[in-house]
Amino acid sequence: MPETLLYAIEVMTNGLMAGVLYALVALGFVLIYKASGIFNYAQGVMALFSALTLVGIMDGQVPFAHLINAVFGTDLHHFGWTLPALLSIILTMGVMVLLAWAVQRFIFRHLVNQEPIILFMATIGLAYFMEGFGDMMWGSDIKKLDVGLPQGMNSWIDETTFNALGYGFFIDNLDIVAAVVATVLVGVLVAFSQYTKQGRAMRAVADDHQAALSVGISLNFIWIMVWSVAGFVALVAGVMWGAKSGVQFSLSLIALKALPVLMLGGFTSIPGAIVGGLIIGVGEKLFEFFVGPMIGGATENWFAYVLALIFLVFRPQGLFGEKIIERV
Amino acid sequence: MNAQMHPQDGYTTADGRNIGPVLMEMRNITLRFGGVKAITDISFDIREGEIRAIIGPNGAGKSSMLNVISGFYVPQDGEVWYKGQKRPPMKPFQVARLGIARTFQNIALFEGMTVLDNVMTGRLNHMKSGLIAQAIWKGRAEAEEVANREVVEKVIDFLEIQAIRKTPVARLPYGLKKRVELARALAAEPSLLLLDEPMAGMNVEEKEDMSRFILDVNDEFGTTICLIEHDMGVVMDLSDRVVVMDYGKKIGDGTPDEVRSNQAVIDAYLGVAHD
Q1: Which pLDDT band holds residue B2 (cuts at 50, 70, 90)?
Q2: What distance, in Å, lies between the first and last C-alpha atoms of chain A?
Q3: What interhelical angle do B204-221 and B174-187 show, nearest 10?
Q4: Fewer CB atoms inside 10 A, N or C side of chain A?
Q5: Which of A210, A213, A216 sits opposite B125 (nearest CB)?
Q6: Domain that holds residue B155
Q7: Residue B107 domain-assigned?
Q8: What CATH number did the domain enclosing B63 receive?
Q9: What pLDDT sits at residue A258?
Q10: Do B206 and B194 sit in the same domain of this protein?
Q11: How far is B226 from B66, CA to CA, in rounded Å?
């Protein structure tokens, strides 16, 4: 096989892996949008916040250390312990559930039956609040996140492909882990929403509030549950991104890459978020590889958005979005 | 026969059915929206096994009363007694968990889900097994799901909607949607079934069908039913006892025959000049 084709396949594979991470963020959006009609602008910041919290808990950082030091003139920074990764992840999940409760209790409970645009504005506010809160709680320096996931080139794939094709594929172990985790996560979420009582209740709430109440579903409980699940998805995304490129505040910007993913996949479809993420991941890598050199590169910055724009024109509900059934 | 009847007593209807003691009692209910009184000091009871109707002209406060029973509205004054206990103010989902199911005047179904899924939501409060067991479909969850499906299939069979079980509700015509909503309420095996204008917007044939279903449900499952209707003819054929409301007040209460001959009721329906 010619070298270029092999190289293109390698680029595509890496694109798939990047797409998995986009899909993970998009998934969080879809969950909340489906269940409550809220487009949660803060999903990316939730990923950042969860990653910050995870690092903070693992390293035994004192939360609000700067604030406490400034007020009391102390010099706190670390408790002086490090916690195992699994325990830290469980504790972080607890924090995310608490966050879900607070978001529901202090924001959205007061905004029931408001226009979607108002709910959207509220999530923008929430995003900036959480970004500042995360900064205040854990500090704004770039942190290294190491939960023990394998990193670096997978030498087995490299060797096998080199022996078979005469060209070694470079695939990062972390990307493989991310793909496996994302696949398992999607399986779990689909099983949850299709086969469990809570999943059925969640779909019911997404469809009609009044009807849901009349069959004995507590809206408040379902909403807290959905925000918790979205928090869990954010945590997974945060861990993957954080392990890949360090926990930094630019992490919240990946939320913007999830927007074109959603436009492609449809705002209400879990498979759509996955397929959309993969298409964008592969698409932008291949476009950069083939077309990039001709037009001066840096296409990865805008390719996804242009693709989304084209979709909006020709298929506004996305690939998997709900068809609009209308009886006249 | 009503006012003097003891709460623990039953009675026998004209067609020979035995009615049990009081299941639900409304005591001096008053409901206001700002300065507007929707319901003024109304008391009545619903007995086990009975078909109880609330009738009245448009705007009489019937739907408000049903919403008080089902917890969607909380009255400013008065007490709601259910199964011999005073019911504290509750959210609608808590009321539903007590075994009170309802339908809506404007139909509230899960439009994106199939008929079967809609009816299955009626069983949500009968599912007790753990989350993981449900997801992997093992042990208690499996037995539970099978039992729930049996109830649902029975209801679907009973209401003759087998043919549309896999159809998304959004595609159904109005009359069938009403029937699916009734199916979902029945699937909960409620102690008390509330029907808000079950015949509204239907043609004569559909009304006859619905009347038959209501009678059959009461007969077959022994379900206590409280329904609202403004079509006098239908109500009189269907119900055992009738509460008549007008301008938020109770103006009559009794068997269809008693109510029919009540002068205040005749005035309210035919309209007389209010002085």
Answers
A1: very low
A2: 57
A3: 10
A4: C
A5: A216
A6: 112-189
A7: no
A8: 3.40.50.300
A9: 85
A10: yes
A11: 9
| CA triple A51-A141-A50, angle to 5 deg | 10
Cβ(A203)–Cβ(B110) under 8 Å?
yes
The residues, ordered by sequence, that sit 6+ positions from A189 with a Cβ below 8 Å of its Cβ are A27, A31, A229, A233, A270
As a whole number of angstroms, the distance between CA B259 and CA B252 comes to: 6
Tokens, residue B169: 């509700």
- For B72, half-sphere exposure in the C-beta direction (CA atoms, 13 angstrom radius) is 20
Q: Is B101 on the interface with A (CB under 8 A)?
A: yes
Residue type, B257: D
SS3 B219: helix
Confidence tier at B136 by pLDDT (50, 70, 90): low
Please state, in angstroms and rounded to a whole number, the distance separating the CA atoms of residues A177 and A246.
Answer: 17
* Sheet of strand B192-196, all strands in order from the earlier edge strand to the far edge: B100-102, B192-196, B224-229, B51-55, B241-246, B249-254
pTM (2 d.p.):
0.83
In a domain, B105, yes or no: no
Last residue of a domain, one of B139, B164, B189: B189
Say if the Cβ atoms of B110 and A218 lie within 8 Å: no
Shared-domain flag, residues B130 and B179: yes
Q: Are residues B1 and B95 in the same domain?
A: yes
Q: Are A272 and A318 in contact (CB under 8 A)?
A: yes
Q: What gap in Å lies between CA B137 and CA A165, rounded to an integer?
A: 45
Decide if pLDDT at A107 tops 50.
Answer: yes
User: Does residue B160 lie within any of the structural domains?
Assistant: yes
Across the interface, of B102, B168, B170, the residue whose CB is closest to A214 is B102
Q: Which residue, of B189, B218, B242, is where some domain finishes? A: B189
CB contact under 8 A, A214 and B91: no
- Residues B52-109 have pLDDT tens digits of 999 988 888 999 999 999 999 999 999 999 999 999 999 999 999 999 999 999 899 9
ipTM attached to this prediction: 0.85
Is B95 inside any structural domain?
Answer: yes
Cβ pair B127:A322 closer than 8 A: no
Query: Within 10 A of A270 (CB to CB), how many other CB atoms are there?
Result: 20
Mind listing the pLDDT tens digit for each residue in A195-251?
888 888 988 988 888 899 999 999 999 999 999 999 999 999 999 888 888 888 887
Domain count, chain B: 2
Instruction: Check: CB of residue B15 under 8 Å from CB of residue B256.
Output: no
